[in-house]
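Question: Now follow the chain.
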Amino acid sequence: MFQIRIHGRGGQGVVSAAEMLSVAAFLEGKHAQAVPSFGSERMGAPVVAFCRIDNQTIRLREPVLEPDILIIQDPTLFNAIDVFNGLTDTGYLLINTSKSIEALGIENAIEHLPKGHVCTVPATEIALTHVKRPVPNAVLLGALSAVTDVIKIDSVIKAIETKFPGKVGQANITAAKVAYEMAQTPTLKEAAHA
């Protein structure tokens, strides 16, 4: 089973990201589960969502405590909560930022991760360019498909189309493709965790 935990703030599409991820997995014939968790349902408050993907029925219902990948939609959360709690030694980290790991000040928190398992993508900037709104969720799913191979980019595209039909969906698809290409660039992934 592959377990994903997504951290962000209200209004960034954290719950929608988990839903789209589970739809993408279903489209590939996998079993998936998306679970939102709200502390305070207001714009800007910390929000976490979970997604599990497996080839067999998923019976777990509790929060993901030991994620195989952490998706951080808002790096200001590094100073607010312990987002790294439970990240496995072979886990992946995908961060919405244009800053270096050193500038974020998280070197110690991620030093146990294998080389190539940390990726930074300026998802909000990409979303602003293509979607005209600061919503990094679909953008980061494009990067996720490049970083982990858990889901294919074509499935992510179909899931985005299902969630956001029309022009909004097409803009999100373009943004997800940009992030997919960016995350596949070895220098980006390696430089992020050098």
Q: What stands out?
A: The helical segments are 14-27, 101-104, 107-110, 123-130, 137-148, 153-163, 167-184, 186-192. Residues 167-184 form the longest helix (18 residues).
